[in-house]
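Service request form, structural biology core

Requester: graduate student, group of Dr. S.
Request type: structure prediction, single chain
Budget code: on file
Notes: please return the result as structure tokens.

Sequence provided:
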Amino acid sequence: MNCNDWSIYSIVAIHGLNGHRDTSGTATNKKMWLEDFLPDDIPNARIFTYGYDAAISGQPQLAKATMFDHAQQLINKVVDERKVTKTSEPPIIFIAHSMGGIVLKFVSAFTSHRLPGYDERPRYRP
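Core staff response, request fulfilled:
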């Protein structure tokens, strides 16, 4: 697939424990790969970051939301973005790190039986 074909994709990155949607993946030179480098390689893709409360230390009150809460929020944000931008068809590529992968698993479990045309066959083998 050449870069011009990437315009049909949305890429959603989900940070991990103690991460933040604006700073995870940012180097000491303040360059964030999703914002500063990925668009050079995939110029037409829609790139998003999803943030959620993933604090496990350093705050007087730690995160109280459940994985289900985080997954539901992510689903709602993706659905809302697609409605606003009228882009309901492009496939989504998720990039998840650490706890973000668990959030994504909950999204998958929650939505898999609700999506038309869902195919339960495994897409890859470990």
